Amino acid sequence: MKKIIYLLAFIAFLSSCKDNTKFTVDGQVLNALDDRKVYLYQLQKDKMNLIDSTILNDKGEFKFTRESADIQLYKLSISFNEYIFVAKNGDEIKFESDLKDEFYQYKLSGSDNAEKMQEFNVINHRNQVATSKIKNEFESKVNDNPEQTEELTERYRPLYMEAYQKANDEMVKFALDNSKSLVSFYALNLVDPRENEAAFIAYSEKIDPELKKNEAVKKFIDNILKIKTTTVGANAPDFEIPNAEGKIIKLSDFKGKYVLLDFWASWCTPCREESPVLVKAYNTYKDKNFTIFGVSLDKDKAAWLAAAKQDNYTWTQASDLNDFEGPSAVLYNVTAIPSSFLIDPNGVIIAKNLRGEKLEEFLSKTIK
Q1: Which residue, among 10, 42, 38, 77, has the nearest Cα to 182 in the 3D structure?
Q2: pLDDT tens digit string along 324-339?
Q3: What is the C-alpha to C-alpha distance for residues 78 and 97, in angstroms, rounded to an integer?
Q4: C-alpha dihedral, 39 to 43 to 44 to 46, nearest 10°
Q5: Is 351 helix (H, G, I), strand (E, B) or coil?
Q6: Cis bond upstream, residue 276 (ω within 30)
Q7: How far is it, in rounded angstroms, from Cα 305 to Cα 309?
Q8: How far is Cα 169 from Cα 164, in angstroms, rounded to an integer?
Q9: How far is residue 70's CA from residue 43's CA, in Å, rounded to a whole number?
Q10: What whole-number distance in Å separates Cα of residue 241 and Cα of residue 332?
């Protein structure tokens, strides 16, 4: 018993000797290239900023010593390869990588968050291998049989999308299950927020209060508060905007109908590619209490109207010609287009960003 007590006391002594005013990163890089520089970046608000650099020694080793009272997200850049980790004062992180690894794997140890990042990297690597295998197999078969490209695309697309969705779901689950670690914030930011809005909102409500000291996390939560006002189930915020003739159109003018509020622009290629789907939807359901309200983010009025005419947009169109800074775009937190909101006759948002077959399927089930 005494031996155990002495051992515990010795461990406590060693812990008390750690320098808790700094953190260190000791790295080992295999198969280093001629460029032996190592760059250290820190996520500050929403941007990775360079904060330090060093050079690999002859053994491929490097070391950084930094100060960070609060947990922060960092990136190592070595010969164009990038590696993410989180750290705070008191951490003694060990890093290992092989620059010949095609999936840019790396090992981390030395702190709870390093171990958590290692756990996530295993998940991420497994999914990268799965999607890469499908992609490589598809490309190989197309190369051997170019005349079968369309058939092969139809065969491999669902396989790729299944693997993509599995990866997405596992990253979201990891984030929600590990909301006390900043690694969870990194994991969640690898998925598309527009496809995972409910998960983003749930995560913002679970995240550990200690992490809210981080500037990037603070900004994330602020953005989620804005998103909540236009999430599925919320009452669609009303706004007014001029049409091409200068007449003021209100969203509430369409209350009593299903309305697809569509933010687009003449210069947006994905928007224009979606035009046939919108035209088909409008012509199919316009006599069934459905319409489309198009809001252009163009700055050039002539370009907006020419595109609307060319793509056969016969539904109501409006624009304040102010890009993403327009009041309606800001109100609906539109940061990318196309963005759309399907609103029911009571003015409640019932779906967002439905495109292609998903829009057709949703409308056929909803509008009778």
Answers
A1: 42
A2: 999 999 999 999 999 9
A3: 10
A4: 120
A5: strand
A6: no
A7: 6
A8: 9
A9: 13
A10: 13
Inter-CA distances, 33 with 38, 45, 88, 278, Å: 11, 32, 30, 51
- Set out the domains of the chain in order of their start, with CATH numbers: 22-110 (2.60.40.180), 122-229 (no CATH), 234-366 (3.40.30.10)
- What pTM did the predictor assign? 0.80
pLDDT computed for residue 96 by the predictor: 96
Distance from C-alpha of 24 to C-alpha of 113, rounded to nearest angstrom: 14
Q: 285: which 2 tokens?
A: 């359901």
3-state secondary structure of 65: strand
Q: What is the pLDDT of residues 198-248, one digit of tens each?
A: 999 999 999 999 898 898 999 999 999 989 999 999 999 999 999 999 999
Query: How far is Cα 106 from Cα 137, in angstroms, rounded to an integer?
Result: 26
Inter-axis angle of helices 197-206 and 149-177, nearest 10: 20
Measured in degrees and rounded to the nearest 5, phi and psi for residue 356 equal 60, -130
Between vectors from CA 253 to CA 251 and to CA 259, what angle results, nearest 5°?
A: 60
Looking at residue 327, the DSSP 8-state letter turns out to be H
Sign of CA dihedral 181, 187, 193, 196: negative
Contacts of range 53-60, beta carbons closer than 8 Å, 24 or more positions apart: 56/29, 56/32, 59/28, 60/28, 60/29, 60/30, 60/32
Angle at 219 between CA 87 and CA 85, to 5 degrees: 20
pLDDT digits (tens, 9 = 90+) for 6-30: 555 544 444 445 668 999 999 999 9
Residue whose entry in the numeric block shows the structure tokens 């006390």:
180
Cβ-proximal residues to 48 (8 Å cutoff; 6+ apart), any chain: 41, 42, 75
Question: What residues pair up with 296 in beta bridges, in sequence order?
Answer: 264
How many residues are present in the chain? 368
What's the number of CA atoms in the CB half-sphere (13 Å) around residue 238? 9
Residue 302 gets the label, from left (phi > 0), alpha (psi -120 to 50) or beta, of alpha
